[in-house]
Amino acid sequence: MTKPVTRTMPHQSMTLLSRLLLTPRDEDESSLSKKAELKSELRSISREEFNELVRLANSNHVIVRGMEVFLDTMHEAKDDMRAAWAQVALAAERARIATALGFLEEICAALEQEKHDVAVIKSLDHWPDLGSDLDLYTNALPEAVSKFMELRFNAKIASRSWGDRLAGKWNFLIPGLPEAVEIHMGRLGQTGEQITIAAHLMERTRRVMVGNRAFRVPSVSDRLLISTLQRMYRHFYFRLCDIIDSAALVEMGDIDYLDLRSSATNAGIWEGVATYLVIVSDYVSKYRGSGLELPYFVHAAARFGGDEVYYAREFLRVPIMPQSARLYGSQLAGLLRKMELESGARLSLLPWLATAALVGQRITGSDKGIW
User: Closest by alpha carbon to 282, among 297, 301, 302?
Assistant: First the structure.
């Protein structure tokens, strides 16, 4: 009689992936016990379950970090078969990243040669992992950048949705590069309402080395503001990379919380930023037994925490009603109080855009052209 295959449920795969990345590496009794338990579980994983783990790690932008830990664990366990699985997955992802970084460096250098200020946003936050597309910000004129990308890289502009047009972003498709190059021009936020952050982003950038390549990236504060806009005000879900990336910034002491609070307050999203950080801390606590050390004023400003977040459709979902809706209302009210009427008008379109996207999704199975 054939033994039935035990399938790992999606939420179980997310739990396993989270344990893989967040289980403490300390040598105390509790950490060693958790590590031994994880090693035992990984040694019994089937090829089908491993493939699901890789798929989920890929969609959450943690495949390199996840497979590195998996590989180390299998080497310790002397499990050559599963170590080989991880090596193949790592090799494929590193090859993709190497190609993408080569293009990214060339694009940034070419834009700078044309005297266009440019910074890489979001994509390099996950290093040694990389996002599924390449995100840039520039304060150059869209017409100049679009013409340059077409002439220099033979790029084609992808069809732009309503949301893309409001947000002031263009997606360029370049021959030989599987990833789209998404360039935000002069605006940030789902509806392009964030000119406050955008106005000072380039002057606050810093240069970082990624391998042997140098890139301009946002300041740590601006990086967290952009992540918050994406997770708390647009997508309403966290990828696991957001948890890992932001936790690392906290633990390394890289965050200037006073600057972060000042910048976020000016942008009208301080409550969203505080909530974002508390969610990260609470999720870390779930797997490590203790959360991150955040200032008291971060906890005080947060509207809700990790107990409100739930897993669905590959990601950690943030409830829209009423939690995120209140953050949106606070952001809109702040823009109107500061008499930023154009930004307020743009942001006021967000519920209509989201509704249209939802209707389109239900009717056609896709929100393409809207969101």
Answer: 302
Q: With 0-12 CB in 10 A as exposed, 13-18 as middle and 19+ as buried, what is 27?
A: exposed
Q: What is the pTM of this model?
A: 0.92
Mark out the alpha helices in the chain (DSSP H runs): 10-22, 29-43, 47-59, 63-76, 80-113, 142-153, 162-167, 195-201, 220-230, 240-251, 257-267, 270-288, 296-301, 325-337, 341-348, 350-364
Torsion of CA 335, 340, 346, 351, to 10 degrees: 20
Q: Is 337 helix (H, G, I), strand (E, B) or coil?
A: helix
* 360-to-102, 165, 350 alpha-carbon distances in Å: 37, 18, 15
The full set of domain ranges for the chain reads 1-94, 219-338
C-alpha 74/C-alpha 40 separation (Å) is 10
Write down the residue that tokens 């089937």 correspond to.
46
Residue 67 near residue 90 (C-beta atoms within 8 A):
yes
Contact present, 20 and 74 (Cβ < 8 Å) = no
282 in Cβ contact with 294 (< 8 Å):
no
List the pLDDT tens digit at each of the 371 positions of the chain: 333 333 445 588 999 999 999 988 776 777 788 888 999 999 999 999 999 999 999 999 999 999 999 999 999 999 999 999 999 999 999 999 999 999 999 999 999 999 999 999 999 999 999 999 999 999 999 999 999 999 999 999 999 988 899 899 999 999 999 999 999 999 999 888 899 899 999 999 999 999 899 999 999 999 999 999 999 988 899 999 999 999 999 999 999 999 999 999 999 999 999 999 999 999 999 999 889 999 999 999 999 999 999 999 899 999 988 888 888 888 888 888 888 878 877 888 777 666 654 544 454 454 454 55
Closest C-alpha to 305, from 328, 327, 279, 287: 279
Rounded to 5 degrees, φ, ψ at 46 are: -85, 165
Side-chain-side CA neighbours of residue 229 (13 Å) = 27
Decide: 354 and 325 in contact? Cβ < 8 Å.
Answer: no
3-state secondary structure of 264: helix
